[in-house]
Structures are given as C-alpha cells and as structure tokens.
Amino acid sequence: MSNISANDLKTKGVSAIEAMLEHQPEAVISVRGKDKFVVMEIAQYHYLRECELEAALAETRADLAAGRALQGSAEAHLARLEKQA
C-alpha cells in the first residue's frame, strides 16, 4: 500500500486520493512520515463494514450454539451485575 503525504494532500487535494484509489482499494495518508489515516471509496467502506457485521453475527451465533449466552430481562441482568460488584 502506497502512502500520500499530508503535504501532497495539501497541494494536490482530492485528486491525490483519487489517483491512489485507481490502483488500490485504500490509500494511507502519512503525517510527518508516519501513517496516520486510511481513505477509501464509500463502496469499499460499506463492504468492510458488512464483513465486520457478518463476523459479529457469526460470533454471536457460535456463542448461542455453545450455550455462552443468558436469556432474561434487563432488570435480571442488572441484578446479576450488582451481585458481581
């Protein structure tokens, strides 16, 4: 993954980001030589967000299947938390 310096971003603006995203899905912006930000097209962001949510759902389903979940009211949950404190 190539970087765009903050200085390039100041002088070239969004065109520097667009040029970088033509060749790769994300662009790293470095500030004073250190990677600081990642920029991507919104479609790539939505794809990654969907992957993240799918992974969380799979983890939740695995917890439910393994019996690592409790069912009950919010009040019952708060009572359990107070007992643990």
Question: Strands, helices and their partners?
Answer:
Layout: E1 3-5, H1 6-12, H2 14-21, E2 26-31, E3 34-40, H3 42-65, H4 74-84
Parallel strand pairs: 1-2
Antiparallel strand pairs: 2-3
Helix content, binned percent = 55-70%
Give the overall shape, derived from the CA principal axes. Answer: elongated
Low-confidence stretches: none
Domain count: the total is: 2
**DSSP summary: helix tally:** 4
Can you write the helix and strand succession as a string?
Answer: EHHEEHH
Beta strands, count: 3
Q: Output mean pLDDT.
A: 93
Rg over alpha carbons: 22 Å
Q: Biggest sheet: strands, sense, closure? A: 3 strands, mixed
Structural class: alpha+beta
Instruction: State the strand order across the main sheet.
Output: 1-2-3
Distance linking N and C termini: 47 Å
Strand content of the residues, in percent?
A: 15-25%
What does this structure look like?
With 85 residues, the protein is an alpha+beta fold. The protein has 2 domains: 3-40; 43-84. Helices cover 59% and strands 19% of the residues. The chain has 4 helices and 3 strands; from the N terminus they run βααββαα. It has helices at residues 6-12, 14-21, 42-65, 74-84, and strands spanning 3-5, 26-31, 34-40. Strands 1-2-3 form a 3-stranded mixed sheet. Strand 2 and strand 3 (34-40) form a beta hairpin. The chain is elongated, with a radius of gyration of 22 Å.
